[in-house]
Design goal:
This protein is of the alpha/beta class. It has helices at 3-14, 38-43, 68-72, 88-99, 105-124, 136-142, 146-158, 181-187, 215-226; strands at 28-29, 32-33, 79-85, 128-131, 167-169, 192-194, 203-211, 231-239. It has a 4-stranded parallel β-sheet. A two-stranded antiparallel sheet has the order 1-2. Strands 5-6 form a two-stranded antiparallel sheet. Helix 5 (105-124) crosses helix 7. It is globular and about 50 Å long.
Length: 243
């Protein structure tokens, strides 16, 4: 008898895992516990084609290659993609994940990333996944790095190593959501650093929870490329023009 499996089933029966979108117990579908309940699935806006060839944001039509942001500015990172479009339910899910200690959401997010973005990730063929680091003060306050949890789960799903030590945040930056793009770039200047001045990786996939202008991916990519990384890609949980 698989006692671990029996124990997990018993725990799930008493304390069933919650749907990350609405917070209600996830239902059984065909005898299997669903990750996201059916009603929430209908309200999720997944990123799909047509999308910006650089950052992965949705664009109006197939003739439009780049979104308005990427048309105006040059990015340091090579290419990025995202799982969800910005919406109220996704915003609330991420808020609970980050500020109400819903760490179990990370596995569901990563599973969906692997399912919907796995083809792109395999095409990039990264040597390693690196989450966007948070400052040590914020880590002590929150107890975890949300990007790190997603990165670890995504690494397991895609069988790609994860390194949470190589890139560190050395400056406690301001919250980004109230800043303009120019202010975001200035806010992130000299915020990141690699621990070792050796070329450890050739291709890196950066993971973050939210993408708006790409300033965070660019700041991380600049530091990594200065350290000798040749290509830097990015994947985010949610993408949008403003939060």
């Amino acid at each position: 008898m698989d006692y671990k499996k029996v124990l997990m089933e018993a725990v799930n029966a008493v304390l069933p895992p919650a749907c990350p979108m609405c917070g209600k117990p996830a239902p059984f579908v065909g005898g299997i516990r669903a990750d996201i309940c059916g009603s929430c699935m209908h309200n999720i806006n997944y990123v799909s084609e047509p999308a910006c060839l650089k950052c992965g944001k949705p664009v109006k039509d197939e003739e439009t290659e780049y979104c308005s942001d990427c048309s105006r500015q040059k990015h340091v990172y090579d290419q990025a993609c995202a799982l969800y479009e910005y919406s109220k339910n996704v915003k609330e899910s991420i808020y609970r994940f980050k500020y109400y200690n819903k760490q179990e959401y990370a596995g569901i997010y990563a599973k969906q990333m692997a399912d919907r973005c796995g083809r792109m990730i395999r095409m990039w063929s990264p040597d390693v996944i690196i989450p966007v680091p948070i400052h040590i003060s914020k880590y002590k306050e929150r107890g975890f790095n949300q990007a790190g949890l997603i990165a670890q789960a995504l690494g397991r799903a895609m069988q790609i190593p994860v390194d949470e030590e190589y890139l560190v945040r050395i400056v406690k930056t301001q919250p980004m959501k109230e800043l303009s793009n120019r202010e975001r770039i200035k806010n992130l200047q000299n915020a990141f650093q690699v621990r070792e001045k050796v070329v450890r990786y050739r291709k890196v996939l950066i993971v973050d929870d939210i993408y708006t202008t790409g300033a965070t991916f660019d700041a991380c990519a600049a530091v990594l490329k200065d350290a000798g990384v040749s290509q830097v890609y990015g994947i985010s949980l949610c993408v949008g023009d403003g939060f």
